[in-house]
Amino acid sequence: MASKEVVASGVDASGGIWGGGVRPFGVPSKKLGMWLFVISDALTFSVVIFAYGYLRLAAADWPRPFLFVPSIVNASVMTFVLMTSSVTMVYAVRSAQLGLRKASVWWLCATVLCGVIFDVLHLREWAGLIKEGVRPLQNPWGTPMFGSAFFSLTGLHMLHVTIGIIYLLAVAAMFGSSKATADDVEVSGLYWHFVDLVWMFIFPLVYLLSAHR
Amino acid sequence: MSDGVTPVVHHAHAPTSFIRRYVFSLDHKVIGQQYYMLALFSVFIGMLLSWLVRIHLVWAKFPIPLISHLSPNGAPGGVITPEYYLSLLTLHGTLMVFFVLTTAPQSGFGNYILPIQIGAEDMAFPTLNMLSFWTTFVALVVLVSTFFVKDGPPISGWTAYPPLSAIGGDAGPGLSLGQDLWAISIALFCIGSLMGALNFIVTTLDMRCRGMLLSRMPLSTWGWLITAVLALLSFAVLFAACILLILDRNAGTSFFIPGGLIVSEKIQPHSGGSPLLWQHLFWFFGHPEVYIAIVPGWGIISQILPVFARKPILGYKVILGCLGSIAGLSFMVWGHHMFVSGMSPYSGFLFSVPTLIITLPATIMTLLWLGTVWGGKLRLTTSMLFALAFISVFVTGGLGGMFLAQPSLDIYLHATYFVVGHFHMVMGVAAIFAMLAGTYFWYPKMFGRMLNETLGKIHFWITFVGVYAIFMPMHFLGLAGNVRRYSEFTDDFLQPLIPVHKFITVCALAVGATQFIFLFNVFWSMLKGEKAPDNPWDATSLEWSIPSPPPFDNFDGKHPVVYRGPNEYGTPSGEKDFEMQATPPAEIQRRTI
Fold first, then answer.
1. Distances, alpha carbon B480 to alpha carbons B39, B57, B218, B443, in Å
2. Under an 8 A CB cutoff, do A2 and B274 touch?
3. Would you call A80 an interface residue with chain B, using a CB distance cutoff of 8 Å?
4. Considering its fold, how many domains does chain B have in total?
5. What is the CA radius of gyration of chain B?
6. Would A140 be classed as within a structural domain?
7. ∠ at Cα B314 (B308, B316), nearest 5°?
């Protein structure tokens, strides 16, 4: 029912001050927007991961082709690089908040570098698999769906990393020339950490579960 | 917080160039009108398609003029082929569900009204808002373009079930390029809706004016907020499903196509996938989608009923609880669309129970609306008539849902006209009635002139009686075993039902024709309608405290202050029986002394 008490000057009934114009949950709009994007994008990834699991469980002969050397080692190095990039991202955000503009830009560049290394290692691995005969609907080892699921899932993630690289470069350039704020750096950090987090699901589900026995 | 300061008061001026002001506008009001017009265009195209569908069902050999130009193969000499019937059905469904039911109540009214109702100057991200509209626009263009490609629109229905939708041209007309365009269109639509949903949530939480507590937000704003949450979570899923479908069709993957499939005497070069996977993903989106169409309607109705009943809404917080619980439950019931797809009886039970539980909050809400109207001083404007009729069709349609929620009944009814009647009643007609109620209610604010009430009432009565005449018989056809999706009823056991179908078709033509009265009213009133006062309905929420139509920056550079909830009706102080949300207490004291 409508509150009958007449409240003057925007002080709410519980005594808290709600002045309007203030962000009610202490979250700037851009940051809230990025959180919502992350939630939504997480669902998009969930679908592809779900599809992978659904098909894998339904298949009688899902291949487990990844030898410890080089595949698992390569994927572990990629994981390490991506985790490192999360650390450098944390430094970039912290430096930005402390007003250390130059340091923040350098940390952002280090993060971008890690992203590029990740992409290069990943593409090299793709090229190797394609050379061995893996296609979206064909591979030398077992159910043809292996290629479909592998390329779709890791491809979607690689696309996110690549977009992240461009995004971080743009933020670095804008923050360096004072066109972006420390908040913008933090928001880009949210995106980057999310992309890293998705990899933490892909690494065990795609690589470790498919390690050669 | 870093930006926890009150924004500087300033006058914003509308851009002067035509393109920036009316085409690529950043103003939420223009974007809201653009969305509304996009939906209006789509609804009339969708309705004309339904005419063609209905005519073909009962007079299959009747040559329809002009349509042979649209598709020489699909309708040689104007006579629609069974395949082209399915193409028309697909486009009817897709246009109506996505570009009307998802677009008008949420993106149309929401964009225009929500920022004003919470006292904001604009949406939180105006550029994103513009992008979301133009993405939706491109999606519509891509969808309509399927009419003009070689085979015409796909024949796979608006649900696009694989393998039919996934294997390409071998499976039938429209399934090569037409189906590709369909998938691209829907993927684009998802992106547009996701951007819109994100913007709505941030705007509602972050942009409220001084004094606008969450508990003082009008229920229409709550409806749009909850719908935005549903859209954010469900369109992300459909988007991924569409991407997988596009990959299956064009990149050689096989997510949805099982092995050993022989279509048109050819073995399909796919294996390993599952058509059920698409159904799970599609309906995980599809059921929340039902609520994306109807929750804004519930909000709009909860906002309109008190205005014309001159009583506060009964149980503001209970209605909120109902909206929230239905939104939550909507993610747990997708399997009830798949009872006949092959499902363990235990899973069927698991999906059936929460579906039936949804009837509880829905019933509570309905009773609260009736309680709001009960004993009120009713003002039977066209808007109010549509709001009351909404309750009627919502109950009628909802009762059908209780049958379909039970696997044992659904197995018989699922492939029949019972389902057609049910979802048209509750998702189609009820949602459209909420939109029409909203149109008659907010038109004065949106276009600065009143709609003609006489035309409105003619429109209302024919439509209201007509939709019952169309969709009630469908329930009985379904009980009699009349299968849906058939293009003709030549089977022996269907022959006796043809007179009922003829009756439905005649009613559909009449109700459809009546909608042109509405269309005429909308455009004629824009030019010749009576000038609208600021607050023609004696309503309380913020949009009625500013001129009609509102100035470019809504509140003329000032920041409104809200002192109370939106439901202060029947509280006489002086000559008025209502208090606006923005009226300062001092002014009320002055008036009452």
1. 35, 17, 44, 43
2. no
3. no
4. 1
5. 24
6. yes
7. 105
Query: Is residue A202 a contact partner of residue A154, using CB atoms and an 8 Å limit?
Result: yes
Percentage of chain A lying above the pLDDT 90 cut: 71
A/B interface, count of CB pairs below 8 Å = 181
CA angle (B193, B198, B200) in 5-degree steps: 90
Taking only the tens place, the pLDDT of each residue in B154-199 is 999 999 999 999 988 888 888 999 999 999 999 999 999 999 999 9
Backbone angles phi, psi at B267, to 5 degrees: -75, 130
Residues B502, B75: contact at Cβ < 8 Å?
no
Q: Tell me the CATH number at A61.
A: 1.20.120.80
Q: Flag residues of chain B having pLDDT under 70.
A: 1-12, 572-574, 593
Contact B213 A183 (CB under 8 A): no
Beta bridge partners of A17: A11
As given in the structure block, the two tokens for residue B200 are: 């709505």
Residue B224 lies in a domain: yes
Residue B263 belongs to some domain of the structure: no
Instruction: Give the integer Cα–Cα distance in Å for B483 and B416.
Output: 4
Q: B210: buried, middle or exposed (CB in 10 Å: 19+, 13-18, 0-12)? A: buried
Reading the block at residue B279, the tokens are: 């159904």
Q: Residue B485 contacts by C-beta under 8 Å, 6 or more apart in sequence?
A: B86, B89, B157, B415
Tally of structural domains, chain A: 1
Q: Out of A6, A21, A42, name the one closest to residue B564 (CB).
A: A6
Asked, for residue B358, whether it belongs to a domain, the answer is: yes
- Decide if A7 contacts A17 (C-beta within 8 A): no
- B137-141 long-range contacts, Cβ below 8 Å, gap at least 24? B137/B34, B137/B38, B138/B188, B139/B98, B139/B99, B139/B185, B139/B186, B139/B188, B139/B189, B139/B192, B140/B38, B140/B41, B140/B42, B140/B99, B140/B185
Residue A51, domain member (yes or no): yes
- Express each pLDDT in A42-93 by its tens digit: 999 999 999 999 999 988 889 998 999 889 999 999 999 999 999 999 999 9
Range of A36's domain?
Answer: 28-210
User: Which residue type is seen at A96?
Assistant: A
Query: How far apart are the C-alpha atoms of B478 and A87, rounded to whole Å?
Result: 62
**How far apart, in Å, do the first and last CA atoms of chain B sit?**
43
Interface with chain B: mutation pick from A5, A36, A52, highest number of B CBs within 10 Å: A36
**Does residue A44 sit within a domain?**
yes
Interface test with A, best of B128, B253, B310 (most A CBs within 10 A): B253
Tell me whether A93 touches chain B (CB under 8 Å). Answer: no
Q: Residue B1 has what pLDDT?
A: 33
Query: Which of A25, A144, A152 has its CB closest to that of B271?
Result: A144
- CB distance B256 to B268 below 8 Å: no
Residue B409: which CATH number?
1.20.210.10
The residue segments making up the domain with residue B461 are 37-257+269-592
Residue B574, pLDDT score: 65
Residues 106-145 of A with CB under 8 A from B: 135-137, 143-145
Taking the Cβ of residue A51 and every Cβ of chain B, the question of whether any pair is shorter than 8 Å is answered with: yes
Q: Could you say which of B237, B280, B565 has the minimum Cβ distance to residue A43?
A: B237
- Helix orientation angle between A101-131 and A182-202, rounded to the nearest 10 degrees: 30
**Is A40 inside a domain boundary?**
yes
Alpha helices in B207-335 (DSSP H): 219-250, 275-309, 316-329
Which pLDDT value is given to residue A61? 86
Which pLDDT score is estimated for A60? 84
Please tell me the distance from the alpha carbon of residue B157 to that of residue B93, in angstroms, as a whole number. Answer: 7
> What's residue A23's pLDDT?
54
Collapsing DSSP to helix, strand or coil, B256 comes out as coil
What's the half-sphere exposure (Cβ side, CA atoms, 13 Å) at B270? Answer: 26
B4: in domain: no
